[in-house]
Amino acid sequence: MPTNGRAERERLRIAIQKSGRLAEPARTLLSACGLDWRVQGDRLFCHGESLPVDLLLVRDDDIPGLIADQVCDLGFVGRNVLAEQDGERRASGQPSAFREWRALGFGACRLALAVPDGWQWTGPGQLAGRRIATSYPVLLREWLAREGVDADVVRLSGSVEIAPRLGQADAVCDLVSSGATLAANQLKPVATVLESEAVLAGPVEPLEGVRGELAGLLLRRLDGALQVRNTRLLMFQASRDALPDLLPLLPTSQTPTVMPVEGGDRLALQALCGSAVTWQQLEALKRAGASGLMVLPVEGMLA
Ligand code: ATP
Ligand code: ZN
């Protein structure tokens, strides 16, 4: 891996998870931004081909620290990891060295408080004097403080969900998406400590110089890529008199493009929709006089 770090670097460096839940979606999103890479021998560093933007493949937990140390400029990491490590810095009197730049819409989960199935949950006060196992002690302590509850936080680096069965804790505070892992361990979620998803993390202050320009370019492409994920182009034809009935039925707040069709009174319409178009919406448009209805995915967008 090239050793020139920090200020003199003229290439942008992005850290992503090497393997795990965020690895594949992170690469897919960066590819959608037009980036591609040559994997080098050690397989930890990928040299950017189409743009001077390189990838570093690491454990997700290392990403905030790599940004703080300016080894990397940006990173794709769970909000849970970023918030916990930011809290750790604050708790030890260090200034913030990274922040969330964008939410990325994948890796959704929540950091949840879970108690044994048999508990009749009456509220956070029930945790007073109890032991709670977690890999997120800072976020849990902050939540307990907000709720005014005094409980013992047991820090575990993994297998948090089996702690109650092993007698190490009474409750847990862990990441949940479907809840299946909790259920398999006879636990039930009762409160949310943090809503999380993958985020683009970067330094507190904007990047400057060449890397600042590259980051700006990447952000514009990222915003475009995130926007097109849910965007559809709706196209159809209709007669001019049907227009007043059709316009209120369009599943979009944007004004559609209306074009005359050669040699008649018919119009061709196209509208960008910010979400999937349902069958019900299409059927309603058809009843109001639309024909040749088509819904197309959008490949790219630049505002
Ligand atoms: P690494 O080897 O990189 O340290 P890891 O085991 O810490 O990997 P993963 O299990 O791949 O990490 O999870 C990465 C991120 O995925 C989490 O920090 C979280 O933001 C997100 N995530 C989404 N759903 C879940 C879930 N059900 N359980 C755990 N993490 C989840
Ligand atoms: Zn990890």
TrEMBL record:
Entry-linked PROSITE patterns: ATP_P_PHORIBOSYLTR
Free-text activity regulation comment from the record: Feedback inhibited by histidine.
GO BP annotations, alphabetical order: L-histidine biosynthetic process
Range of residues in the leader sequence: none
Pfam families with a match to the protein in the record: HisG (PF01634), HisG_C (PF08029)
EC number(s) on file: 2.4.2.17
Catalytic activity from the UniProt record: 1-(5-phospho-beta-D-ribosyl)-ATP + diphosphate = 5-phospho-alpha-D-ribose 1-diphosphate + ATP
Gene3D superfamilies given in the database record: 3.30.70.120, Periplasmic binding protein-like II (3.40.190.10)
Known function: Catalyzes the condensation of ATP and 5-phosphoribose 1-diphosphate to form N'-(5'-phosphoribosyl)-ATP (PR-ATP). Has a crucial role in the pathway because the rate of histidine biosynthesis seems to be controlled primarily by regulation of HisG enzymatic activity.
Domain ATP phosphoribosyltransferase catalytic, first and last residues per copy: 59-201
Top-level taxon of origin: Bacteria
PANTHER family in the cross-refs: ATP PHOSPHORIBOSYLTRANSFERASE, ATP PHOSPHORIBOSYLTRANSFERASE ATP-PRTASE
Subcellular location(s) per record: Cytoplasm
Encoding gene, per UniProt annotation: hisG
Name the UniProt record assigns to this protein: ATP phosphoribosyltransferase
Domain Histidine biosynthesis HisG C-terminal: start-end pairs: 230-299
Gene Ontology molecular function: ATP binding; ATP phosphoribosyltransferase activity; magnesium ion binding
Keywords assigned: Amino-acid biosynthesis, ATP-binding, Cytoplasm, Glycosyltransferase, Histidine biosynthesis, Magnesium, Metal-binding, Nucleotide-binding, Transferase
Pathway as given in its UniProt record: Amino-acid biosynthesis; L-histidine biosynthesis; L-histidine from 5-phospho-alpha-D-ribose 1-diphosphate: step 1/9
One Gene Ontology cellular component: cytoplasm
